[in-house]
Amino acid sequence: MSDGAPPIGAFPQTPVAGPRRGPAPAGSSDPPKTVNSTPPLPVAPRQGTAPSGNPAPLIPLNVLDAPTQRLYAFAIYAGLLAWKLYDWTRIVEEDAESFWLLLKWVAIDFVVLFGLPELRIPWLELSQPFVVVVFFCHVVFDWVLMFNFGLPWQTWLFGLVKVFYDREIAISERNVKLSNIIHNSSLIMGRQIINILPEGSAALNPDQIPFCLGGDRKIAPIPIFFNATVPVEVQLIRTDLESNVQEIIKLTRVQLRDIERRSKVQTQDGSQVVVRYDYPAKKAGAYQLGKVLDEYKLEVQRKTPFTFVVPCPRAWVGPAPSSGRCVGDLSDLSIHVEGTPPLKIMYSRKINSEDSSFHFQSLQPEGFSSPLTGSSLSTSITDPTHEDISWARPRVVPIGLNESMGVSGSWQYSVDEVRDGFQNVVKYTAPADDPDGKPKPKDLVQNFVVKERPRIQIEGCDLRKPIKAQKGQSTELPVRFHMAQLPDDTSHSLIWEFSPIDTLTESGDHGRVVIPGSYRAKNSRDRPKISAPGLYTLKSVVAGACEGEVQEPSSCLLLNPLEPKLEIRSEEISDTCAGNSIGLRVDMDLIGTPPFTVKYDIVSNNVDRESKTVRISSLRHQIELIPRFAGHHKYTFTHIGDGIYDGKKLVGQEYVLEQDVKPAASAMIQHSTSGNAGTCLGDEVAVDIVLLGEPPFTLEWELIHDGKRKHQKATNIADNHFQIKTAALTQGGEYTLALTSIQDKRACRSFLQDELKISVRRQSPRAAFGQIDGKRKTLDVEGSTVKLPLRLTGEGPWTVRYTNLLEGALPDAKVLEKTVDNSNGFLDVQTRGVFTITDVRDNQCPGIVDPNAGAFEVDWFPRPELSVISSPAVHQEGSDYVVASVCEGDISGFEVSLKGTAPYHVEYQVRHQPIKGPSSVARKAFDATSGKSSILGDTAKAGQYTYTFSSLADNLYNSGRDLQSLVVKQVVNRKPTASFVKPGQTFKYCKSEGQDEDKIPIELTGVPPFSLDIEIKHQGAPIPEIYRTPSFNSHSYEIQIPRHLLKLGTQHIRLRDVRDGSGCHSMTDIGAPSVQVQLFEAPTIYPMETRTDYCVGERLSYTLSGTPPFEVWYTFDGAERKAKSPTTSFRRLAETPGEFAIATVSDRASECRSPVNIVKNIHPMPAVKISKGRNVQVDIHEGGEVEILFEFWGTPPFEFTYTRSSNARKGLRSQVLETRHDVSHEHSKVVRASQEGTYEVVAIKDKFCAFSTQQEERNDRSQKTLKYH
After folding, report:
1. Can you provide one Gene Ontology molecular function annotated for this UniProt record (predicted)?
2. Which residues contact 501 (CB under 8 A, 6 or more apart)?
3. CB-CB contact of 426 with 316 (8 Å)
4. How do residues 212-230 score in pLDDT, each as one tens digit?
5. Is 390 within 8 Å of 245 (Cβ atoms)?
6. Which of 326, 787, 820, 1245 allows an S-S link to 1199, with CB 3.0 to 4.6 Å?
7. Residue range 109-127: mean pLDDT, rounded
8. Is the Cα torsion angle 88, 93, 95, 97 positive or negative in sign?
9. In 3D, which of 597, 543, 538 has the Cα closest to residue 566?
């Protein structure tokens, strides 16, 4: 049975994402795994996603679950720690570079520690402050390790590292593991096992391996073991699980001969005498071993427990009524499991590509009792005395899965694995894991399509804000359809309830009459049409077979307001003087939904027709219809509309009004400026007047200015149009022309209120030039734009006309014109001259020019100039200047004179023509603040330099392109140079002078002959010595430094000075390249021990004198090798036998090889084999005897120790029974034994070396000996 599974209904265990395995192969006979005695607590299932409150891991949990991610993270950290400790051992043993290793590990720790939180692995989501603290702790730890600070814990840490990495450099110059050499299992090989045969026995399936039949498993191979016997008859008893009927099965002759053949083969091999035979069971049942007879027809001892062969468990998914579901529906699914209870099933649920695994265990029918339900496999399961084995029959257990499907999309339930009470497992491979990609059978998979539920509500309408529509016309019911994710097909069905408006209750709810309604919408924007007034309430919505939710507001009230109506009443408006009717006053009463729109037509004198519209916001309104002309006027009201109804036509005589009108006399001012006019000082103003009434007219008006009124009158005006002309307005200010009264033919005087305001300028516009720096004259840069300030009065914009007197005198001069918007504007000019204003005008009136400020003078600043100042080192040749020649690197230059406005900016070109090769050009510039400047010559390289000045600019002029070309030339002689052919090289000399010593080569440039000063500085001397070479004529030279100038140690050789035949010399810089000369004594080597014989696995140690590192040349077995030692100690591990001879030794500092001859002999470890090195098992009867052969390798005589131990038994450890010691002067020896046990050698020793598997110690002669217990 499984590990104490909880009963049905418990939470399934936490699913672990991992690769699925296919079904177990047929005939699998793997024994059941050890189970725990205490059942674990049930664990609630978790999804393969991160909690909604935290960000999801970078690697999704359905790809790699959280425990595995944490395992990988700790594994990587442990691997990096092991790598770090390996680098530390390199520092300790090989003196590796500490600084670069420290930088490497600080960078690696930074990436790992700060990158780990970004993976967002559950339980490893470290906070930023914690990561920073841990990182600094790692930096300190790296610093301590990489610089090898002496701390107390380093000793045991180094020992701990050696446990995992124990390698040393052997004589073959490769790293070997010492433990592999000294613990060589091939030195002592073989063992002799002697068994005293008991009586024969037979056992059927002693390991109680479970078997099942079904599917691909057609045969169950039940093992039968025969010990020390060859059966001639074997009977098996099979008890049927269904009927409890027993059947006796006998093994055939072919099967018995097969058992006999196997027994003979194993007896010849000598490895074992227990014969196994697998009986192929093809029927289910409880098998037990019946009668077994040996070759003497005697019955063999046998164990007769039951071995159960049951049908393999299986599972299938019950058919669902339909594969369609809606969000929130129950899955309503059943899974059937068949097998021997208690059963366990594992299934997976896949929701939109997110896979989760679940399981049920301890599945069994109600009231079922079985020995498999105990905490462990009890003996009652296999005890043949219990005849009732009905509990082993296969049963069918249904499982109901009824979970809420809260996510829309694709759902799939799939059976992955089923296990019965005997731990027989059947796995169903997923298509992704199947190599052929075969899908699972249909009865193992159930697919569902879960659809979203729709939601609807009324928008923009409720009982407080009803929908109003015209009577008889339909409108859309404002239904809003929405889903979490809109599918391609959004068709849906709506159902609502409707109550007519006259059946609603006093509270506005549905009354006694409720009419159902429905609509099939084609898409989410399709809405039903409604026309009947009343209350509409949504009841349900169905989309894609899923009933949705009706949200509030769900009710809407539709109203049909009354059509608009109009009633009018009118009365005449009479003239108070003549008593004539001058218009109508109309009162309107309206019914409908405000605002109202009333349209009416006006027909005057049966000719003119005019349409007007009145907008009314209330239910009552009054208008006055007063025509301006006399005659017959007819008013017809044609249409009325309100907020619901548009343009209802009005028919009937009650909507027609007629009247004959003779209006009173009147007059109006016609002016485009709407009651305001402006004019210039001294101008006359003409005003047009329109007269209404019957001529002739008498018109009176007033002209008002500064509080004074001037009354004027005109009589007998026979026309309806009249023009009033004022006198010249010579005073500035505001005038008012006001109409006071009018009389027409009827002599009725009418009061008038129309007036016109006239604004008269108080002065004429004026124009003048402003001043710059207190005067009307300026200097500026040639070609620039000069802004001449203007001073203008009046109302802008102004039109200014001006001329330049330098271009000609008036009136022949060219006159220019410019429009200025600002009273303090500017005239932009780009030429020099005297500019004069000739005329000015503002936006309305002409002006005058100030005669004292009407002219402005403009002139240019002079341009800069450049010249070379002559001196003894500078003279002029033709148009060019020549500077005296100098040596390369010397200081040289010349001076230039500058005229203009400081500061100056000079640009020039330097052309260098070297002695060999093409020329080069460089452009340079400098700034100067005075009229004289020095130019430093370029003497960095030898050759001819030509300085060409091409541009000059000062504070005013940015470009000096008009500058004439100025050329200065100079010749620079080349300096001699000397350099080492191989700078930085170290020349090593021995103290004794040799014939083939290297000389220091140098190369020179310049004009021969040359002479050199060489500086020799010893590292211990404060003052260097100078060695001067004799003159030589070659461009290459080899320096031979006298030996008396050199001292033991290191000295730096530097070229200090070089002179050539041209008189130039050069001195090298302090940091110039140099070479080193090292003078050394010859190194030596001494052995640490005086003995000459060693064994394989021992260390050969030597001491070196000289300057590390050292190189040691030695021969081993005739092959010459070279080894390096970074310290003064040289140690090698003896890996193989042979002669080890050191020939010469040198150190890296001097390369002086010192000949030596130190020879050591390395002997092999002795070896022994017992029974030809094999594990031989011999079965004898009591009183028998066996010869044990011992074979030796090494140098005689041999001393060996062997033990006799008890034979290993299952569950019992072997114990040493006795220990024996023997000596052999030959390479083989035979010992006779008759006692049962296991004989093996534990120690061997020859003339030089010894080896033991128990304990080793070294004697006073530094050879290996054995200590026997």
Report:
1. structural constituent of nuclear pore
2. 533, 534, 535, 558, 559
3. no
4. 998 888 999 999 988 878 8
5. no
6. 1245
7. 85
8. negative
9. 597
Please give the average per-residue pLDDT across 271-298, as a whole number.
Answer: 83
pLDDT for residue 287: 92
**pTM (2 decimals)?**
0.40
> CA 1163, CA 1250: separation in Å to the nearest integer?
11
DSSP-assigned beta bridge partners for residue 1038: 1001
Read off the tokens for 906: 């000079």
- Split at pLDDT 50, 70, 90, the class of 1 is very low
Rounded CA separation 953/321 (Å): 98
Q: Quick one: which of 236, 251, 372, 242 has its CA closest to 304?
A: 236
Q: What phi and psi values does residue 1171 have, to the nearest 5 degrees?
A: 60, 50
Least Cα distance to 795 among 839, 846, 756, 852 occurs for: 846
Amino acid identity at 947: Y
Round to whole Å and give the CA distance between 536 and 498: 5
Tell me the β-bridge partners of 914: none
Structure letter (DSSP) for residue 483: -
For residue 935, give the 3-state DSSP assignment: strand
Contact 11, 42 (CB under 8 A): yes
Tokens representing 976 are 């001699």
| Res 339: pLDDT | 92
The three-state DSSP-derived secondary structure of 149-205 is CCCCCHHHHHHHHHHHCCEEEECCCCEEEHHHHHCCCCCEECEEEEEECCCCEEEEC
Is residue 792 helix, strand or coil? strand
What is the distance between the alpha carbons of residues 803 and 813, in angstroms, rounded to a whole number?
Answer: 7
Write phi, then psi, for 1021 (nearest 5 degrees).
-100, 135
Which helix (H) or strand (E) segment holds residue 588: the answer is strand 581-591
| Residues contacting 432, CB < 8 A, separation 6+ | none
Q: Distance of alpha carbon 339 from its chain centroid, rounded?
A: 51
Q: How many CB atoms lie within 10 A of CB 271?
A: 12
* Radius of gyration of the chain, Cα coordinates, nearest whole angstrom: 61
Answer for the pair 925, 903: CB distance below 8 angstroms, yes or no. no
Strand partners for 871: 874
Q: What is the pLDDT of residues 135-172, one digit of tens each?
A: 889 888 888 777 776 555 555 665 555 555 566 777 77
Closest CA to 541 of 487, 491, 466, 467: 491
Residue 1047: enclosing H or E segment and its boundaries?
A: none
Question: Which residue type, as a one-letter code, is found at position 517?
Answer: G
Question: Average pLDDT for residues 525-534, to the nearest whole number?
Answer: 90
pLDDT tier for residue 51 given thresholds of 50, 70 and 90: very low
- How confident is the model at residue 58, as a pLDDT? 82
Listed as own residue / partner, the contacts of 253-259 with beta carbons closer than 8 Å and 24 or more positions apart are 255/279, 256/231, 256/232, 259/226, 259/230, 259/231
DSSP class of residue 217 equals: B
CA dist 397 and 363 (Å) reads 7
1199, 1249 in Cβ contact below 8 A? no
Quick check: 1056 and 1126 in contact, CB under 8 A? Answer: no
Query: Are 1246 and 1196 in contact, with CB atoms under 8 Å apart?
Result: yes
Kindly state the tokens that stand for 900.
Answer: 């203009």
Instruction: Average the pLDDT over 1045-1060 and give the result.
Output: 84
Q: Report yes or no: 971 and 885 within 8 Å, Cβ to Cβ.
A: yes
Backbone angles phi, psi at 66, to 5 degrees: -65, -45
In the Cβ-directed half-sphere of 536, how many Cα atoms lie within 13 Å?
29
Separation of alpha carbons 360 and 417, rounded Å: 11
What pLDDT score was predicted for residue 31? Answer: 40
The answer for 472, left when phi > 0, alpha when psi is -120 to 50, beta otherwise, is: left
Rounded Cα distance between 939 and 317, Å, is: 98
Q: Are 1124 and 1109 in contact (CB under 8 A)?
A: yes
Are 440 and 312 a contacting pair, CB within 8 Å?
A: no
1257 sits in the region (left: phi over 0; alpha: psi -120 to 50; else beta) called beta
